[in-house]
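Lab notebook, bench 4. The sequencing result for the construct came back, and we need a structural model before the next group meeting so we can plan mutations. Quick request posted to the team channel:

Model the 3D structure of this chain.
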Amino acid sequence: MKGRNCSLDFPMHLEKISRGPYPLAPACSALLLTLAACSPPAPTGQGDALFRDVMVDRAQELDPRTVGIGKLVADLEFKEIDGSRGRLSDHADRKALVIVMRQIGCPVSDRYGPRIARLEEEFSGRGVDFMFVNADKYLTVDEVREEVENHGFRGRYVHDADESFVETLGADTTTTTFVLDASRTLRYRGAVDDQIARGTTLPEVRRNYLRDALESVLANEPVAVSATSAPGCALGDRTPEFAARGSVTYHGNVARILQSNCVECHRTGGAAPFSLETFEDAYDRRRMMGVVVPDGQMPPWLADDTGGPWLNDRRLSVEDKRTLLSWIEAGAPEGDPADGPVPLEWKAGWVIGEPDFVFQLGEEKAIPAEGVIDWDPILADVEVPHDMWVKALQVLPTDPEVVHHATVTFRPPKDYGKTTLDALMSHLVPWTKRYEGWQFLFGYLPGKGPRSYADDVARFLPKGSLIRFDMHYTPKGVKTRDRTRIGVVLAEEEPIYAAQTRMIRNWKVKIPPHAKDVHFSKVYTLESDVLLRSLVPHMHYRGHIFHADLLLPDGTEKSLIRIPEWNPDWQFSYVFRHPPLAPTGSQIRITGWFDNSDENPFNPDPTRWVHDGPQIWDEMLMMATEWIRPRELQ
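Done. Here's the predicted structure in token form:
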């Protein structure tokens, strides 16, 4: 195209992030769209100069709750193209079954044929069967024989003339694949990979969705990206049919809901104080679940539906909530253990793989059995030894039961900022606009997974930077010790895009005694075009309501997040499913309402003045905002 020096795919698949045992991100990816971006490195105008609005039908991550992930698939009967009959349960002795939607003559479906055949050949020896399903009503035997011969398919070929597979699974395109484990639990649905789409093809595969899902299922581990769209020829807008049929039981229904939404924390070795992994666990906690589930106390989530949508939304679907509560009301029947899901195995230690470098608290922290522990900023044991482009991060407490939350920040050396200012501005918030030089790196909350950036995106840590852990501890009733660590995996080469975080904070919060509905705001102006990836609102005990808005240069306002009822126990990161573009000159405005009255159940002392400060009994109005932008932009 005229006037362009290059064409770069902008990865809006920003992070793999976890939501429950089926990570949404996340830990994490926000989208699998691609925007065409170009050099020159210094864009000139309102967003489109930097992020071209060339949209194509690529695979995008979907909300697993809306497409049946974790649900039991009915034991469908089918007729193969040769007339023989079967059921899905015929494959119960195998570790997984891949159902592949097909349509002869669909260009995208045809192009994926050879690589699906290669996957079938590779995984068939590892306990995985492939089944091919074609819903064309007037499909002929000769057409199928030709396709099978051309591509080398080995599995059963089902003629779904009555569209029972399409209806039950909610297949909406002719390239959608479905992975069922040995218990017929749907573990993945979506694209084979991200290379081929309608109207475009990437030079190479970036994300092997189907392969990665199979590897996780074979290891009995959660699937990192469990649901995507699958660009192909249309089969109609379908809603999967996974509603509970007949009587609701633990093994037939509830175990899958808990596994998908609760067991990541509520398991042996998890962050929660008790397990929900077995029938006995769930039965003994059923009454408490009946208290905390109806009003959304559990799973915890503070944002309403005004902003977002969020890639890591933890809330139960309406259907799952109804099923769980009806099970409790019916006396919590166990059902047949043969109907239960395959138990998941949870990785201990470094989920991101062996880190290239580990920073830890400079000293071990002794935690008393009871009492209130002051906020404690602790420097890491070493400085950053060399310039680092960080591809993945994970925080590991040695005793996660006492770590309420932790914030990891870094501060580049001042001489670095002064002597190489241009380079610093390319990677970081400008030195002159950083409060005390400390910049947000990663936030830890029990149940929150690690962070892994998409291809071509990384965080920059300059040589000589200090690493600081801001630890918020809560005693657990017995004495213990903790030495929290953060591990980083480095990018193999410098990325095209830099992830950056800006702390937006009002330092002048001052709340009178007994005051209610006192509010403060803070506005930050963007000096370049960015894609907003995530928000981390932060307030303390007097926090009541939190809003963040994007004020666009044309005068319009967009709500980014609304938290109608603040709870200081849950300091979440909210990851955009569709990262919004914030063009140069946009402003991010945060507003917090505070309640210092007796009516606030969290308020430790309504009689005192409350000012901005680091301790939990002080107050804060702050939001960490992460965005990405081209690395060379200055």
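The longest strand covers residues 516-525.
Will bring this to the meeting.
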